[in-house]
Design brief:
Blueprint (H helix, E strand, L loop, with lengths): L12 H22 L5 H4 L1 E8 L5 H12 L4 E6 L6 E7 L7 H14 L6 E8 L1 H24 L1
Antiparallel strand pairs: 1-3, 1-4, 2-3
Helix pairs in contact: 3-4
Length: 153
């Protein structure tokens, strides 16, 4: 069925280049106008992870964390495939990392409030914005090099 079909890719090269350039240009304009939404890994902040069991009220966790820290936080839950490994993730996008005393105070309040859930602190990750900026710049360079290589190919 396709034995005698001919596709003239080279003859339409200018059209393909114009369409590709237009798509790239629109993408760049949108990225520059809206700005990239970056994760805490790039912008700096603190992520506190707890393991727990049973059901947990994330709104109540967010309220306790916000009252303790004094800033708005994001709260998410995840569970593993076996559903036994449930994680509670509290994230705070902030230029300065939380100090140890504040994290300990938050731990104490959450463990007391959710003692039936066997809440246990699993991990605290603090990233400074300078480290995030360097990481973001390296990722951006890698993406640009990859895009250039694809265009050359």
């Amino acid at each position: 069925m396709l034995k005698n079909k001919k596709f003239d890719f080279v003859g339409n090269l200018k059209l393909y280049l114009i369409v590709s350039a237009a798509i790239i240009l629109v993408g760049l304009v949108v990225a520059l106008v809206l700005g990239p939404v970056v994760h805490i890994t790039f912008s700096g902040g603190t992520i506190i992870t707890y393991s727990y069991s049973g059901e947990i009220d994330t709104d109540k966790v967010a309220q306790i964390a916000a009252d303790t820290i004094g800033k708005t936080v994001g709260v998410d839950t995840t569970s593993g495939i076996d559903n036994d490994s449930q994680k509670l993730v509290i994230s705070l996008a902030e230029k300065d990392a939380l100090d140890v005393q504040l994290i300990d105070k938050l731990d104490d309040k959450l463990v007391k409030e959710f003692k039936d859930n066997k809440l246990d602190s699993a991990e605290v990750l603090s990233v400074s914005p300078s480290v995030g900026a360097v990481f973001f710049a390296k990722c951006l360079v890698a993406v640009l090099i990859a895009a250039l290589l694809v265009i050359i190919y």
